[in-house]
Amino acid sequence: NILDTSITSSSQTINRIYGDLKINLPYRILRRFSFNYNFEDKKDIKQASTFSQTATYNRSVEVRPYSLSNYKFAFNPPNLIIKKLNAGTFSAFYQKTITNKPNTKITDTIGYNSTTQTHQPVSSNLSADSRLSDISKYGINMSPFNLFSLSGTRTDTINSFKQNIINQNRGFNYQNSILYSLKATYSPFRFLKLDATYSNDRLTQFRSPSLNVSVQTLKHEQSLYGNQKIPTTAALESYLAKHTQLANANLTLTPFKFLSITGGGQIKRINQDIASQTSTFNRDTINVNTATIGAILRPLKRLSINYSFSLNFIDQATTRSQGYTGKAIVTYT
């Protein structure tokens, strides 16, 4: 009977626009500057339904847009010469990347009235989630008198996520971090190399069950309840403040082409504050110190044997522990 027939249908439409732009001016001074820009705008639309002549059925429309904007300024001057002495190299850049993913899905339930033999809308559910990321990065690279190389970056990251989906966590998440990193490399002889790195990362994260709350409100409430349990009447549901510092130094000695000996150490310190409406305020400090020694043996041109041994010391509140790890890697290409 054709009246009992059900029809399932689905369709998908994808529209995408993207492009790249590069600018390098030919003039003597301006040619040291460069500008790169790329973008993408995409929309993915999915429609699905299971139509029935004599029963309730569902139909849905899902829209998944995506946008990307990325640009970078760079400055690469020539080597600096002071009284015929090469003072080394220098370069700098600034880069910004923004991505946005505002997704929505509408599901309609169409009911069937057997008495009147007609269909009528019963319910309509909206599910939505949006992700926004904004990353700014600044960096410099230099090699004073070509004696050693030094690089430094600062990365500012903002991530926000809103979710309004049935039977899942509804709310707003906001995360902000500022990361500083330094790296230095010094090689006084061909057989000796020293690498050192340092990073400093400050991260703050807020969560609220409300979709319309402002970041300023969450920051204000965090300052009010910074060292206690958050009341249930607050818009702020939970927060995390985390500060991570990491210092690392490694020495590589290569007395022969077929043998390299490495040694180094790492110091890591984490301070974090956690508070929420369901648990008391908690402040924690974690110290992790690591010492490593290893060797790389190249008995054949295409064969390398890498072995490392590490000692780990962990100190957290009233708990202290230590351990060791050994790792061997054999590579043949």
Short description:
The chain is mostly beta strands. The protein is built from one helix and 15 strands, in the order E-E-E-E-E-E-E-E-E-E-H-E-E-E-E-E.
Question: Could you characterize what this model shows?
Answer:
Helix content is 3%, strand content 76%. The chain has one helix at residues 215-224; strands at residues 6-24, 33-52, 57-75, 81-82, 85-86, 88-113, 118-144, 148-164, 171-189, 192-208, 238-256, 259-276, 282-300, 303-316, 319-332. A 13-stranded antiparallel sheet has the order 1-2-3-6-7-8-9-10-11-12-13-14-15, covered by helices on one side. The termini are far apart. The mean pLDDT is 90.
Name the average pLDDT.
Answer: 90
Approximate strand percentage: over 45%
Give start-end ranges of low-pLDDT stretches. Answer: none
Task: Report the total helices.
Answer: 1
Shape: extended
Question: Could you give a short account of the major beta sheet?
Answer: 13 strands, antiparallel
Oligomer: single chain
Approximately how much helix is present in the residues?
under 10%
Structural category is mainly beta
From the alpha carbons, calculate the radius of gyration and give it in angstroms: 29 Å
Strand order of the largest sheet: 1-2-3-6-7-8-9-10-11-12-13-14-15
List the helices and strands and how they pair.
Blueprint: E1 6-24, E2 33-52, E3 57-75, E4 81-82, E5 85-86, E6 88-113, E7 118-144, E8 148-164, E9 171-189, E10 192-208, H1 215-224, E11 238-256, E12 259-276, E13 282-300, E14 303-316, E15 319-332
Antiparallel strand pairs: 1-2, 2-3, 3-6, 4-5, 6-7, 7-8, 8-9, 9-10, 10-11, 11-12, 12-13, 13-14, 14-15
